Amino acid sequence: MSSTGEPSIFTRIAAREIPATIVAETDRIIAFNDIAPQAPVHIVITPKTSQYSNVVELAAGDPGLLVELVEVANAVAATVSNGQFRLVFNTGAAVGQTVFHVHAHLLAPQTAAGTLGEGTLGFR
């Protein structure tokens, strides 16, 4: 739940209340294209549970779920970017976290020849 007690946008996407282009899904994880991509490939990967607001809470509370999230990221990247990717977790509003339901941003070049540029976070 969000701080307002309402389900997060990611909970609503997982429940199919809000449309999204889903690229991968397990019983506990969902991955979908970001609606405002910051790289040629920009996929949000999140647990379906809203129990954890950030990656630190997830790692402490359910490390196995964090492992599953990374495994899904790796499988998606194998399909969309020859296994090359960045996995970014924002933890806190000051660094850009806007949805307080733990999630990762998978950022990758469109092809093996593409690049996100060394020294960047893949943002335009």
From TrEMBL:
Q: Which Gene3D superfamilies match?
A: HIT-like
The taxonomic lineage of its organism, from the top, reads: Bacteria, Bacillati, Actinomycetota, Actinomycetes, Micrococcales
Q: Which residues cross the membrane?
A: none
* Protein name in the entry: HIT domain-containing protein
> Where does this protein come from, organism-wise?
Cryobacterium sinapicolor
Motif Histidine triad motif in this chain: where? 101-105
- Where the record annotates domain HIT, the positions are 9-118
Q: What Pfam families does this protein's entry cite?
A: DcpS_C
Under InterPro entries, the record lists:
Histidine_triad_HIT, HIT-like, HIT-like_sf
